[in-house]
Amino acid sequence: MSNKLPKSGKGPLFNNPLQHKKTFAQQLQTQSLGPPVTSLLDHMKDGREFESLIKLNNLSIDLQSEMVKSFKEIEAIRGNPVIGYLANVVNSNIRANKSIDYSDDLPFSELINTIPIEKREIDIVLVTPGGTGNQVAKFVDKLRPRFDKVTFIIPNIAMSAGTIFAMSGDEIIMNNGSYIGPIDPQVPNKEGMFIPAQSILTLVEDIKKRGEEAMSKGQRPAWTDLQILNQLDAKDIGNAINASNYSIELVETYLSNYKFKSWTKHSSTGLDVTNEERKERAKYTADLLCSHSVWKSHSRGITRESAWNVCKLQITHAETIGLDKAIRRLWALFYWVFENTPAYKVFISEYYCLIRNDRTLINEPK
After folding, report:
1. Measured distance CA(159)–CA(127) in Å, rounded
2. Domains of the chain
3. Which residues have a Cβ under 8 Å from the Cβ of 280 and sit 6 or more positions away?
4. Which of 38, 86, 344, 356 is deepest in the core (most CB within 10 A)?
5. Residue 236: strand, helix, or coil
């Protein structure tokens, strides 16, 4: 179910054809003795952005306007149009699919198409737990022919396929609470459960090494390892190899073509960077981001420091360009929205707004 959030002047915060179940925020409305609060951003306290919101009551908020206003704060600093693709990674009660999937294709296309044609640079606020690399490739195919420079702003997390998406940008901006993640894809096993592809391949490689070591000593491979191999489906291994190679290929291509294209001089020597060196660095970073042996877990958060020190991936620190406060305010606003509404995906800009709501959190009208 897709609804815009209600406008101010049209009743209470959740005055919607499909009424949201009563939340703590709504309960506070009945306790208010003061005038209606019409802006969350106007009531934020610096350094306590989210806490200052949860204490508000008598709410009558046009949330779409508030979201756009938070984007405008970033645009005033950056000078570029700002769009947002944000998933609800906050509310554990959401049951709808928060991941990047094929249903995102049309709204994302419309979101891009509404940006004035003369604008050649764009900033994308990205929050996602991950999803399908195939759809990310379609996003990139729409963005890169249209814009000369694409910057990703990550206020919270952009994991897995979200990390692949961010690698297609010319610049990535993170604050000290932002994370990207390993790009090892998840593939279905024979029971239909999704498991990290690299965990399968790492297991097979470990068993292979142990078996070769045992055989070099004239011993048989361990019985336990043989039983594990017997339980593995050849299709699962094949899918894991193909999916991993696809993720690596996407990131390698994106880094070579976009993120690393401005890398022209070696910082240590001052020598020119060759195209071959860019490709080698892109391959190194892509392989590393897909390495289960390095990150140990598909859900491992990679900080901006680890992105640079381990992956050789330069990240712009939000505070060094005067953007930290604006990002904190934006994320506090969306955090509040995600906690207090059934929204699970938001496609938004100054020119466009589509919000998908989880129907399981909405009371059907009687």
Report:
1. 8
2. 63-181+301-363 (3.90.226), 185-294 (no CATH)
3. none
4. 86
5. helix
Determine contact, residues 158/165, Cβ cutoff 8 Å.
Answer: yes
- Please, which residues have CB within 8 angstroms of residue 106's CB and are 6 or more apart in sequence? none
Tokens 């209600």 identify what position? Answer: 6
Please name which of 242, 247, 296 lies closest in space to residue 132, comparing C-alpha atoms: 247
DSSP 301-322: -B-HHHHHHTT----EEGGGGT
Contact 307, 313 (CB under 8 A): yes
Instruction: Write the burial class of residue 299 (CB in 10 Å: 0-12 exposed, 13-18 middle, 19+ buried).
Output: middle
Q: What is the CA radius of gyration of the chain?
A: 23
CA distance 294 to 272: 30
Write out the chain's pLDDT in tens, 366 residues.
444 443 333 333 433 333 344 454 554 444 445 688 999 999 999 999 999 999 898 899 999 999 999 999 999 999 999 999 999 999 999 999 999 999 999 999 999 999 999 999 999 999 999 999 999 999 999 999 999 999 999 999 999 999 999 999 999 999 999 999 999 876 666 666 666 776 777 777 788 888 888 888 889 888 887 887 788 777 777 777 878 899 999 999 999 999 999 999 988 888 999 999 999 999 999 999 998 888 888 789 999 999 999 999 999 999 999 999 999 999 999 999 999 999 999 999 999 999 999 988 876 443
Compute the 3-state secondary structure of the chain and give helix, strand, coil in percent, each to the nearest 5: 45, 15, 40
